[in-house]
Amino acid sequence: MLELDQLGAPNNITQYSGAIAKTTDGGKTWKKVFQQDGSFYFNGIHCHDEDHCIAVAEGHNCANPGAHIFVTHDAGATWNQTLFDKGAGAGLMGARMTSATEGWAAGGMGSTLSFEGRFWHTTDAGATWTKEPLKGMLAMGLDCSDASHCFAPGISGTFFPPSLFFFSIFKSCTNSASV
């Protein structure tokens, strides 16, 4: 079983702590392969195979708030941020790789008056991403049977109370990374 203290802890309990852990023995043991404290937390990860994965994260009420996409091409030995969607209302909730080179990430940009679903698409293993927006919906997850057929549950409408979206308003962010 993976214990929380194995993931590490942020330097201050008011910070975000984003971490990724990996198992290679069916969950008997876990190893932390990435951690960054202070800027964001992860909401989703998906791997096409052991080598190729994408992970999505978000951080609000920070010096540099926004949504993040990280990719690995070496089974988690290294993780590179390949997209940053700037803004306190930006978030990413789901990720799906449909091949070693093609994938999707879903989330959106929310405010108190409106929101826009944001579906990010890559065909070059996460090196670049193209945004496909959908007004009036925030995507809260993502699943794909292939690159052309995906579903995303979400929140629809034009009014979004800030207390629901910015649930982490009292957290603060600094920058520190460790692996």
Structural description of this entry:
With 179 residues, this protein is mainly β. It has one domain. 4% of the residues lie in helices and 49% in strands. It is built from two helices and 15 strands. It has helices spanning 4-7, 162-165; strands spanning 17-22, 31-37, 41-47, 53-59, 66-72, 80-86, 90-97, 103-110, 115-122, 130-135, 137-139, 143-146, 149-151, 154-156, 176-178. The strands form five sheets. The protein has a four-stranded antiparallel sheet with strand order 3-4-5-6, with no helix packed on it. A four-stranded antiparallel sheet has the order 7-8-9-10, with no helix packed on it. A three-stranded antiparallel sheet has the order 1-2-15, with no helix packed on it. It is globular.
Short note summarizing the structure:
The chain is mainly beta. Helices cover 4% and strands 49% of the residues. A hairpin with a 5-residue loop joins strand 3 and strand 4.
Describe how the helices and strands are arranged:
Layout: H1 4-7, E1 17-22, E2 31-37, E3 41-47, E4 53-59, E5 66-72, E6 80-86, E7 90-97, E8 103-110, E9 115-122, E10 130-135, E11 137-139, E12 143-146, E13 149-151, E14 154-156, H2 162-165, E15 176-178
Antiparallel strand pairs: 1-2, 2-15, 3-4, 4-5, 5-6, 7-8, 8-9, 9-10, 11-14, 12-13
